[in-house]
Write a structure and sequence with these properties.
about 325 residues, eight-stranded mixed sheet, four-stranded parallel sheet, 8 helices
């Protein structure tokens, strides 16, 4: 079983951390993939470099396995982050576009209706990244945050994106690149310590947060994740829970009356979260204030119908 770290040469916030990581001890050249992707090997970690958009190279896990016979059990993509605010940020998030319909085009990779299993390291690595950023004096200039589930590429192994934002000035920042490189180095145990965030060593702490609602930076879910050291599943912000208002004349208790792709998004996010955490207890955490009454009712009814448990703050510790 190997961990695959993926970087693209066309993104400074991707190749910067990859180069910083490769300057640390123990790396040697590995096989090339399909002739144009170079790789580097260090213990059980494989770093793969390509020259394409980071969200467009699908199924790199299976392609690596086909080329090397090595089974990939997790994928970590290094990437830039963009935001309207242009705020400097270091972010981590799961990927998928589970809210899109089959006939819709996914503008940033992935397949409509799909979500990758979330990498179980997301929660523990968020805390580690905060510690590293603090010790490198990147806080408060940089915000360290989770993001909601979004974009591709399509892949079916537990995955996360680790990003530097939010403008070219910050994508090229060497201190930010160094912090992300250290996150991967320490997080995967390359420095000799224990890897951080191994689900198989959860010591009986088995509650996983499936976040429903809120904005893109999921602040209410993140509060619980940081306070209770909760494991992190998919995080579906309001824009991924598309709900059509049934109008006042129809019953608002019946989720069958509420159109939109919200049910499918919840279902696939729950199933892939469960798959990423074998034997875990996945609890939906609803950002209550981000929904109207009829939306809350519909979501609660649907969760009950699907036997998906709801966790209130305090249920995750």
């Amino acid at each position: 079983m190997v961990s695959l770290v993926v970087a693209t040469t066309i993104d400074p916030a991707s190749i910067g951390p990859a180069s910083a990581l490769l300057s640390m001890p123990g790396w040697h050249p590995g096989p090339s993939l399909q002739g144009n992707m170079s790789s580097f090997v260090n213990k059980e970690v494989r770093l793969l470099k390509h020259d394409n958009s980071i969200v467009k190279e699908d199924h790199l896990d299976k392609r690596w396995e086909a080329a090397t016979s090595e089974v990939v059990d997790e994928v970590i993509f290094l990437s830039k982050h963009t935001a309207v605010s242009n705020r400097p940020a270091l972010t981590i998030h799961p990927i998928g576009v589970p809210h899109l319909r089959e006939n819709e085009v996914s503008p940033a990779g992935g397949k409509p209706g799909w979500a990758a299993p979330p990498n179980p390291r997301i929660g523990p690595w968020l805390k580690l990244l905060k510690t590293i950023a603090q010790s490198h004096n990147l806080i408060p200039e940089f915000e360290v945050t989770l993001e909601a589930t979004h974009h591709g590429p399509e892949i079916n192994t537990p995955t996360m994106f680790v990003e530097i934002g939010s403008t070219e000035e910050y994508w090229k920042r060497q201190d930010a690149a160094q912090a992300i490189a250290l996150l991967v180095w320490e997080g995967l145990g390359l420095g000799g310590g224990d890897a951080v965030g191994d689900w198989s060593r959860n010591n009986g702490k088995n509650k996983i947060l499936l976040g429903l609602g809120g904005g893109h930076y999921v602040p209410r879910h993140m509060d619980i994740i940081l306070k209770d050291d909760a494991w992190v599943g998919h995080l579906l912000s309001g824009y991924s829970l598309l709900m059509e208002d049934p109008g006042q004349s129809k019953t608002q208790q019946n989720p069958g009356e509420v159109g939109g792709t919200w049910r499918e998004a919840i279902k696939v996010s729950y199933e892939t979260t469960k798959a990423a955490f074998p034997g875990g207890d996945v609890l939906a955490h609803i950002d209550q204030k981000s929904f109207k009454g009829w939306q809350r009712n519909a979501i609660s009814s649907f969760l009950a119908e699907q036997n998906i448990k709801v966790g209130k703050p305090g249920a995750f510790s």
